[in-house]
Amino acid sequence: MICLRNTNGVFVLATTNRPKSIDAALRRPGRFDRVIWMKLPDASGRAAILRHYLKPLKLDPSIDADALAERLAAATEGTSGADLEYLCQSAARICVKDALASGVLPNEVSITTCHFDEAVMSLGYNAAFSIVEQPELNNGKQRRKTYAKNSAYEQQLV
After folding, report:
1. Residue 143: which CATH number?
2. Share in percent of the chain as helix, strand, coil (round to 5)
3. What's the pTM value of the predicted model, to 2 decimals?
4. Which terminus of the chain has fewer CB atoms gathered within 10 Å of its CB, N or C?
């Protein structure tokens, strides 16, 4: 952080998912003293991110990548770009796992919507579910019970 020469016009940018864990000494004036909060992407932003991560994947020829991106974007509210990348990677891993289990070479298969459906359902912590805490009364004492509330995605599967 301390330089031996003048560095006018030089900006250092840093990113983190945990801004509160940064040492206060680093956030003093003259160091990393500006914070810019980035919101999570909206549905159109998530669809654009998904289109980007779907491009290099070997999708089944019957899949319309734009329609799949829109469908997944509607189901993944509250997710970041990294979450969406992981969703696409998970679908690819599931595809390869299915290919190996059936004896087919992984380079001879393509990712189907079923693989994406399974990936969304398996990523319950961020992509398909939102955790809702509901109070439950038991013998006059209040307890907290956590339920996994399914998003609209599962409704699209039916």
Report:
1. 1.10.8.60
2. 45, 15, 40
3. 0.65
4. C
